[in-house]
Fold this sequence. Notes:
alpha/beta, Rossmann fold, 4-stranded parallel β-sheet, iron
Amino acid sequence: MPDLLDASPYDALLLLSFGGPEGPDDVVPFLENVTRGRGIPTERLKEVGSHYFLFGGVSPINDQNRALLDALRKEFAEHGLDLPVYWGNRNWDPYLTDTLREMVRDGRRRILTLATSAYASYSGCRQYRENLADALAALEAEGLDLPRVDKLRHYFNHPGFVEPMADGVLRSLAELPEEVRDGAHIAFSTHSIPTSAADTSGPVEDHGDGGAYVRQHLDVARLIADAVRERTGVDHPWQLVYQSRSGAPHIPWLEPDICDHLEERHAAGVPAVVIAPIGFVSDHMEVLYDLDTEAADKARELGLPMRRSATVGDDPRFAAAIRELVTERAATERGQEIAPCFLGSLGASHDLCPVGCCPARAPRPAAAGADSPYA
């Protein structure tokens, strides 16, 4: 096991997230950041932002990241891990470039990054690495001495990520009426992405190139379904489903959509459903609207009892998992041989993204990988 007190050679952890608006006046500027370069008119952005306006123009993601920051700092302090934690976003304040600039001015030279996405895909990994490269390029243009920036491995199959979600499913099953509980179906939900992006996601070590996004989610779903069976003695049927599609209708995306799936399960005679949002670290807007609003409305329309289980959020087990991943990676950087912690059949993900991993349509520089210009 790595030394729980030793994060060297790293001297800081960066929490890297998507960001979200924190009031009505923020919604359109935030969406302009998200869609920059696509030429989408303001009126269309106001339509897209209707989900945010339903909740006062506030996305829950920033407050949830603040809670995770507090949990990480508490976890590190309780275990004597002397590692400051910073926070930067892709699309809203605090912006990534500003945070990296602050870290450089604080003297941070080896930075380890935690992205709030657990799985391999372009939008969940490679794009964050491109954002890091863009921020480093901006600091280089300012004449600053650049730090080395690495990224924690994918943590989808770490016990500290899987076990809180399994407990959430068990709690949701217990909340269902007793007469429908044992027959409940589990819909494991994640963000839909274009099938082309899913096909080129990865690679996963020892499992060939591509297809990692779906394969990793299926592995997590099986782990949770197995845990539920072991705890309850009931083998609940389940399926991986998708939500939050945002692309052009002519481009194939992963299916089935969660609302279509609820209709299909109801037609098949399923008495109840638990939706488990395994693709999301916290209950941000896509969980709040697409599941707690749209899918919940669909279930009520069908007369189908439904519960939505919790994401990991700031669960202490998740904070402990991040601490373990930090010290695991630090030990590897120091040349120590360690056994990485994981569940399931896919093994621990790579520490360094290989060349061509989760490629974009147009190649762009990406940090924290084998092809990084900022190694």
